[in-house]
Amino acid sequence: MIEIVFLGSGGSIPTEKRNHPAIAIRYEGWVLLFDAGEDVQRQFEKAQLGLNKKMAIFVSHVHADHVLGLPGLLLRFSLLGRIKPLSIYGPEELIEYVRVSQSTINLGTTFEAVVHAIGPGEIFSQQDLSVSAFEVDHRGFALGYEIKWARSTGKFLPSKAEKLGVPKGPLWKLLASGESIKLEDGTDISPADVTEPGPESLKIIYSGDSRPCDELKKAARDANILVCEAMYTSEHSILAEERGHSTAAEAANLAKEAGVKLLVLTHYSPRYYDGEEIIGEALPNFANSVLARDLMRIQLSKDGSVVVIHPPVQ
Ligand SMILES: [Zn+2]
Ligand SMILES: [Zn+2]
Fold first, then answer.
1. Spacing, Cα 89 to ligand 1 middle (Å)
2. Cα torsion through 32, 36, 42, 46, rounded to 10
3. Ligand 2 mean position to 117 CA, how many Å?
């Protein structure tokens, strides 16, 4: 099972109930964090995500509301003695942002933290899960992310392993048990590469900040879950266009056109307080919409079924 935990559903200004953008995806002992808005470290604690988990962080773009929480999270991990290495992926400016944070605010880490400048394409894979980035339409360079969960029958196919040059022996055993491996020439091989193909992959899309655009629609095609920003209602459609954001109606229409199964609306402006106007505008356009709230969880099972777990009303 994959679990999405919404750590922040807020707009550019956090409110009493809603934090800056951040979502965590839990999968097989991993925590994959998408964006790290301010105070994400406290949300991490509230959601009990752990501090020494296998982890990677993916940043959509280097706007303050998406990265202010990153130094705090790294500090927290260090003060609590994290030792596992941590990879951080995002646009090139992220390298300088983390470097300056480390050199000016005494942000030494007890673990290896490496920032990777990335562009569109596949950037991470672990067992049958992979993460790819695609460019979206915001102010400046910004990325959305596709999280793909390959489904195979699990049946190991020696002929495929041989074809890919995997030597017979312990590496075959590892692949057959669901572990990814690296060949001597650096090639990564995942279990999905050497097992009998199953039904189509499951797909979660995270829009980051974006206008509705072809790249987002293409990535969202037949997605099981689209987590999409919906900063405004149509009343502020000019503002949405000027600031590179989407309205709730635009997000809902994109979900409908792309054949998405579940739309989750997030990153909505504090002017909507608890988001009633946002979900109210989305539902007539796309009935299978839900509004993100902080600490809401969504569970996706391998058969494609989805369970939404709402946090207790505060
Ligand atoms: Zn932005
Ligand atoms: Zn934003």
1. 17
2. -40
3. 19
Give kind and range of the element (H or E) at residue 255.
helix 248-258
Starting at the earlier edge strand, list the strands of the sheet with 306-309: 113-117, 86-90, 54-58, 30-34, 22-27, 2-8, 297-300, 306-309
Among candidate residues 206, 147, 190, the one with its CA nearest the CA of residue 27: 147
Domain boundaries defined on the chain: 2-151+199-309
CA of residue 63 to ligand 2 center, whole Å:
7
pLDDT in tens, 150-173: 887 778 999 999 999 999 999 999
Mean pLDDT value across the chain: 94
| CATH, domain range 2-151+199-309 | 3.60.15.10
pTM over 0.85: yes
Ligand in nearest proximity to the CA of 266: 2
The span from the CA of 13 to the CA of 61, in Å, is 17
Task: Please give the positions annotated as active site.
Answer: 65
Q: What's the CA-to-centroid distance between 243 and ligand 1, angstroms?
A: 8
Instruction: Output the CA 123–ligand 1 centroid distance in Å.
Output: 21
CA dist., res. 206 & res. 222, Å (int): 14
Neighbours of ion ligand 1 (CB under 5 A): 63, 209
Q: Which of the ligands is closest to the CA of residue 139?
A: 1
Chain center to CA of 29: 16
